[in-house]
Every structure is written in C-alpha cells, then in structure tokens.
Amino acid sequence: MQPQPYENLSADCCIVGGGPAGLMLAYLFARAGLRVVVVEKHADFLRDFRGDTIHPSTLEVMHHLGLLQELLQLPHQKAEKLQAEIGGQEVTMADFSRLPVQCRFIAFMPQWDFLNFLAQKSAQFPGFTLLTSTQFDDLLEEQGVVVGIKAVRAGQPMEIRCPLVIGADGRHSQVRAKSGLVSQSFGASRDVLWLKLSKHAGDPDWGMGHKGPRHNFIMIDRGDYWQCGYTIDKGQFESLKQRGLPALKANIAAVAPFPVERLEEITAWEQLKLLVIKIDRLEKWMKPGVLCIGDAAHAMSPIGGVGVNLAIQDAVACANLLTEPLRQGTLTLNDLASVQKRRHFPTVATQFLQIKMSGKKKSSGKKSPIPGIIARFPWLRFVFGRLIGLGFRMETPRL
C-alpha cells in the first residue's frame, strides 16, 4: 500500500531552500500578493560558519523595501574596508567609503538573524508559508514540465503543486541534481578550515581580512569571538588529520597574529568546519517550470564574501521579472530565461575576478599578482570596493 500524503498544497511558487536567496525572493513574491511556499530541510536557521556578510548593495535593497533601519537594530559589526597583510604591511584591498548608497560598509551579522528577520517580515503577508524540517524529495513533472515538488515532512510524503519551482538550495542543490541541469566547473586550488577563537584584551583591531605572511589566515570580528579561516591546498584535509591536531595548530600559528597557546581551546577536530571551495555555474539555469538561483545556479569562492550578495541580487531580479507572469498565469520558459540573461554578466564577471584573485597559476606556480598591484596603486582599493560592495550589476526591487 502506498503511504498517504501528509498534506497537499498549491501555490504560485515553491522555493526550495530557506537561505538568503530563497527568503528574499519569498518576501518579494509574498509582498506582491503571490502565494509562495518555502521548503527548508532544517528546523531553524541556526548554523555556524555560514556566509554572514551583508554587502552595501543588499543593504540598499533593504533601504528600498523600508526595512533597513529595523534590520540594523540587530547586532552586527561594520567593515568599511577589507584589508590584507602583504610583505609584513597591512594593505587596504577594498574601500567602500565612496559608494553611492545609504550604507558604505559591509555588515557582519549572523546569518540566522538575517534569515529570521526576513522570515518574520514575510510572515506578515497572507500568501507566505514556511515549512521547516521539510526535505525536498523530487520534482513533479507532467509532459516534460515541472508542476511542483514531492517532499517529506514529519516522516510523511507531501506534494506542493505550483507553476514555478525555484531551486535556492545552495551549492549542493538537489533541485539542480533532480532537474538534470548541466554545470561547468572552473575548479579552485584551496579549501578553508573555519574555527572560532575567543577574543582577548590586546587583540588586533581587525574587522575582516587576511593576516599572516602567506595571506592564508582569515579573521572576522564576531563581537565576542573571532571567526577564523585557515586556507589549505584542496584535498589536504585528510593528510592534515593524519599528522594530528598539534601539528595543524602549529601551522595555523605560523600565519596567524596569535601565539600557538591561543589555539589550545581547539581540542577536537569537530571544532573545525571544512568548506570545500568550488566555482561553477549552470549552462542553463532553467527548464520548463523550474529555475535555479544563487549558489544553486553558480557556486562562488568565499573571496570577498560575495556569494550571499549575488544570491540576493538574483532574487531581486527574479522577483522583478517573474511577478507579473506569475500573477497573470502566463509564465513561459522565456520568462525564466530572462532571469539568467539579466544575471549572466555579473555572475561571469565576478567568477572571473575570483579565479584571478585565488590560487596559483597552473603554468608558473606563482600567486595571483592582484594583491600586490592594489598595494602599488592605492586608488584601486576604491575600484575593488565598488566591485565587491555593489557587484557588477546592482538590482533595485520594483515596488
């Protein structure tokens, strides 16, 4: 006997993934009067080492939506510039002070606070539904067109029928996998080990940036602790584990602005989180009835923290272009393609810049020259401030 569905729902759009792209798009759709269901596999948004950067362009979106001042009441730190240590000297890599927006800084805010904020604002609209602890299972297709999803909630199967499924479920997107969309990978030479270190009196005044003689130690000020990232060669993690935790801590201390004694609070490998970096993008972001955005469409390197920013911009473009077709019941594949067309250039340009700034050239083994060039020509810090802070194309929500 086939199990009975837990419940069946219908909506104008089902969004798989309650991350920045998914919840921003849900808010915009619900605000416009559409019925939208967000499917999130976790019970809440509370997870460590997520992308916690809210860029000036995202803050500008919140300003246009009338939500900025309330958002900034939540605890956060401001980074008005991004820095690195090159040749023993601190160098400003990006300066946001000349940006033509309301907020000339990156706000570092725990992502769960930002997502809870968006979910709470979305819940004010009658068309919004958030299903937590709900696992996406498969796409519903009829005659080659996606007409909804199958999911599992509280151990029971359910169906959500809708004219549009949005895959906003990250770089390991199951919507992408089930849809059969093809991606192109551009590789990455490094991975990142994230860890927490408590703050001590006399610690450096450091908002966000790279420190250490080899530029592979990342520090982000989280208020009462440091979020630190130690970059390693891709695939090196298992060999590091074999050498043991003391050896790893000695390696980290060699490039960190802290003595090895500060790392004594790291006592188990479970306190480290491995981020496997990859840079890729879908050749086509859509097929009839389904569209991927954010990391599901284009995985980014953590350089500059721009992944969240691009995901938010994708969501705004998606809402701008698809709200009316959904409202009128006229959504076509060409409408979905218009989202990729709109967001293709900023995606490609950002990934190109990330590839140039990361790793080593395969032929020579030399590191990227870009940090040194910025150090020689200080005016470039404002160029990179604009590219990182606003991106190559900033989207404005249509109200």
From TrEMBL:
The keyword Oxidoreductase applies. Keywords: Oxidoreductase. Residues 12-338 form the FAD-binding domain. It holds the Pfam family FAD_binding_3. This is FAD-dependent oxidoreductase.
